[in-house]
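ok so for the tutorial part 2 we go from a plain amino acid sequence to predicted structure tokens. step 1 is just haveing the sequence, like this:
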Amino acid sequence: MLELTILGFLYERPLHGYELKDRIQGLSGHVRPVSDGALYPAITRMVKAGLLESRTEPGVSAAPRRTLSLTPEGRAALLSRLRAPKEAEITDGQRFFTLLAFLGHLPDPADQAAVLRRRQAFLNTPASFFYEDGVPVRAEREPDIFRRGMLRIARATGTAEKQWLAEALEELEAAAASDGV
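step 2 — the prediction. this is what the tokens look like for a chain of 181 residues:
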């Protein structure tokens, strides 16, 4: 997910390393903090792979700063990842939110809708944190107050997300139809 996040933020504009780290922290730092020990080696790998360009600029009152930007290959890699996200990026809530943060970079509403339909299909599959004889346990049948709370919160969140997905898909389908006219 770190690579997707780096590509996504740099798609918007070139950034200094510390600005990029701040944006990543804002997006997912409360769940998955990013350390310099993870960020800077990822940047180095992406520069070597030709996805990013790094140039050194003089610092205002400090040491020189490294400015990062996407190469054409980096733009293509981002758009490819957004069009065809990994299964975990659809099924894991935090990863899906990271994907959503950049899905607007895809220019085609039909491509955006295809990703949302995958999430919608996942959410429409019966699931639970707990199973009894292979059947998902429903909140109403869970005797433990804390597990019942988990199930109720997950249901409410899932209901809200399903409603948003339906609305977003309707809007994207209307945009795709108007593009085709």
